[in-house]
């Protein structure tokens, strides 16, 4: 039980919500770059209990991928940064009612969300993957034959493996991510499905280098989100992301917080081109 509790702690928020709750709120006025610079403060809505995106470290400092990216954006604008904690359930409302200027809050681009917010171009990928012991030759569905596969019950990775796994695959379903990871570490299963961000979190519990990403099932794209009428602001954010990807700064953030190399991403946050893609082999 202690092991499971510890895993739950380091995996807190590893999964991300796929749906946006219907909103009956009046939207605040469109935000502009000039108004932000004039005010001298960039108000960013970020999740603060989502390792590795936003969380408080052992020294009591708020940090993480989205937090550092927000600080980078504020520096680019020449203003101070003010982080407003949000959750997956209230982040869109916080944006639309004017509590924040922008969301950097593990906001994956999905069709339902595109209807209520305006996305800049993506700044990172967020993959659903399969994880196994380092060195094991597992490159796709066919390699799962004869293996024990653990998945959280009812998740995208559960649905995917149920459809695609070859005969002879033993699928074991668990109640949550923590129990699934515990089964992997305890040797009850050979490979598990989860988010790419779980790899460094597993290393915190099991030790570094013991487990690695085997193959990607699906890839979503995270982006800044602004109010629907804030076209100029969204364009600035897209240009910012383009410049920081080109300079290598966002790639360095990805390597630091997620691990590995940042994959190619769409150059827009709008339309079908920005929606999640299947990576199933």
Q: Summed up, what is this model?
A:
The protein is 33% helix and 22% strand. The chain has 281 residues and is α/β, with parallel strands linked by helices.
Any overview of this molecule?
The N terminus is likely disordered. The strands form four sheets. A six-stranded mixed beta sheet has the order 9-8-10-7-11-13, with helices on both faces. A three-stranded parallel beta sheet has the order 4-1-5. A two-stranded antiparallel ribbon has the order 2-3. It starts with a helix and ends with a strand. The relative contact order is 0.19. The chain is 33% helix and 22% strand. It folds into two domains: 139 residues, Periplasmic binding protein-like II (D-Maltodextrin-Binding Protein, domain 2, 3-Layer(aba) Sandwich), CATH 3.40.190.10; 93 residues, Periplasmic binding protein-like II (D-Maltodextrin-Binding Protein, domain 2). Helix 1 crosses helix 7. By secondary structure, the chain is α/β, with parallel strands linked by helices. The chain has ten helices and 13 strands. It is found in: Cell envelope. This is Amino acid ABC transporter substrate-binding protein (PAAT family). Its main location: other.
The global form is elongated
Sketch the major β-sheet.
6 strands, mixed
Whole-angstrom Rg:
19 Å
Intertermini distance: 36 Å
Specify the CATH architecture of the largest domain.
Answer: 3-Layer(aba) Sandwich
Signal peptide: 1-29
Protein name: Amino acid ABC transporter substrate-binding protein (PAAT family)
Keywords: Signal
Subcellular location: Cell envelope
